[in-house]
């Protein structure tokens, strides 16, 4: 019976957790981690809400940068959006004549917790988001920023 309880607590309980966050079982702290080969969506990043926000924009000829795997936004987002420059380090030589939309997720499936060397928190310290997207619990899961070439050159010399 004890083993069944431990198995349930470690593998089955339905408390919200991003893949393997630390957890307490019998006064023991079990470490979290990034499991290799994990699949599925154990959390919601509100992709439908993000897609609706982009659909309301007057033009769909936009360039978007994100720290998420490109397969996910390409599935949910409006067709015609271009995805570029989505790397952990700043790629340099960015062309954004009409501005650049930067979509930063707090917990991306890509495990890329930094975009251009900045964490989600640093993006919020340096720029004001155009909008924040919330999950079912009311926590911010993503923010979108619009940057001009001048802002990019000033922030990332």
What integer value in Å does the Rg equal? 18 Å
Helix percent band: 25-40%
Strand order of the largest sheet: 4-3-5-9-8
Structural class: alpha/beta
Please mark out the parts with pLDDT under 50 across 5 or more consecutive residues, or reply none. none
State the shape.
Answer: elongated
Q: What's the mean pLDDT score? A: 83
Describe the sheet with the most strands.
5 strands, mixed
Helix-strand string: HEEHEHEEEEHEEH
How would you explain this protein's 3D organization?
- This protein has 157 residues and is α/β, with parallel strands linked by helices.
- It has a domain of 109 residues.
- Helices cover 25% and strands 22% of the residues.
- It is built from five helices and nine strands; from the N terminus they run αββαβαββββαββα.
- Strands 4-3-5-9-8 form a five-stranded mixed beta sheet. The protein has a two-stranded antiparallel ribbon with strand order 1-2. The protein has a two-stranded antiparallel ribbon with strand order 6-7.
- A hairpin with a 2-residue loop joins β1 and β2.
- The radius of gyration is 18 Å and the shape is elongated.
């Amino acid at each position: 019976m004890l083993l069944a309880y431990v198995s349930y607590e470690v593998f089955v309980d339905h408390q919200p957790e991003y893949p393997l966050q630390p957890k307490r079982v019998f006064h023991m702290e079990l470490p979290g981690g990034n499991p290799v080969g994990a699949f599925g969506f154990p959390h919601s990043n509100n992709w439908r809400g993000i897609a609706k926000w982009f659909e309301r924009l007057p033009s769909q000829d936009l360039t978007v940068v994100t720290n998420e795997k490109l397969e996910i936004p390409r599935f949910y987002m409006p067709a015609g959006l271009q995805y570029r420059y989505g790397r952990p380090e700043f790629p340099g030589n960015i062309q954004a004549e009409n501005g650049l939309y930067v979509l930063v997720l707090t917990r991306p499936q890509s495990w890329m917790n930094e975009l251009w060397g900045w964490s989600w928190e640093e993006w919020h310290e340096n720029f004001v988001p155009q909008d924040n997207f919330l999950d079912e619990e009311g926590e911010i899961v993503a923010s979108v920023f619009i940057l001009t070439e001048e802002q990019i050159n000033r922030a990332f010399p």
